[in-house]
Amino acid sequence: MGGLLGGLVGLPNLGALIGAFIGDFAATAIIEYLEKKQESNYILSLEEYEAQKITAEEKRIFYIKCLREISLPPIENISVTEIREATRNLYHQNNPDRHKDDPNLALYEEKFVHVNNSYKYIQKYRRELGTWTEL
Q1: CA R_g for the chain
Q2: Which of 35, 43, 67, 108 could disulfide-link to 114, CB 3.0 to 4.6 Å?
Q3: Closest CA to 121 of 42, 46, 40, 43
Q4: The pLDDT of residue 9 is above 60
């Protein structure tokens, strides 16, 4: 699979790189490469995401990207409590109402939206897997 992916993106050596990793490490390497290639940290809204037809593996990779967006390690079995706590902290840090006079207000607003979209996607993905528990 790694060699095929490497051929598709124009880097045959990427297959060897992916072959050296397992599980989340492979997904992390793919995400990093694609983000560098696209030069975009854009997180889709839930509506934009649902409008796309993507595979289960792409959903998993996007889930890991969203975990990173809320400053969590890219592991599958992170607890709901940890996700909520990290999200709450980032909401608090990046709340545009707290930075009204800051010249970087637009950055705080953008980060706030990204955190919100990431949380919504993580919640949806984990509900689909049956691993999201309401407290």
Answers
A1: 16
A2: 43
A3: 46
A4: no
Question: Distance (Å, rounded) from C-alpha 91 to C-alpha 112?
Answer: 6
The residue type found at 104 is: N
Residue type, 118: S
Q: pLDDT tens digits for 47-83?
A: 766 777 778 888 888 888 899 988 898 887 889 999 9
Residue environment code for 25-57, b if the CB has 16+ CB neighbours within 10 A, otherwise e: ebbbbbbebeeeeeeeeebbeeeebeeeeeeee
What does the angle CA 1 – CA 18 – CA 132 come to, to the nearest 5 degrees? 85
Tokens encoding 126: 């984990």
Tokens representing 133 are 């528990």
Q: Which two tokens stand for residue 29?
A: 């390497």
pLDDT at 32 over 90: no
- Residue 61 contacts residue 43 (beta carbons within 8 Å): no
Rounded CA-CA distance 28/17 in Å is: 12
Amino acid at 84: R
The closest of 87, 77, 83, 59 to 130, measured between CA atoms, is 77
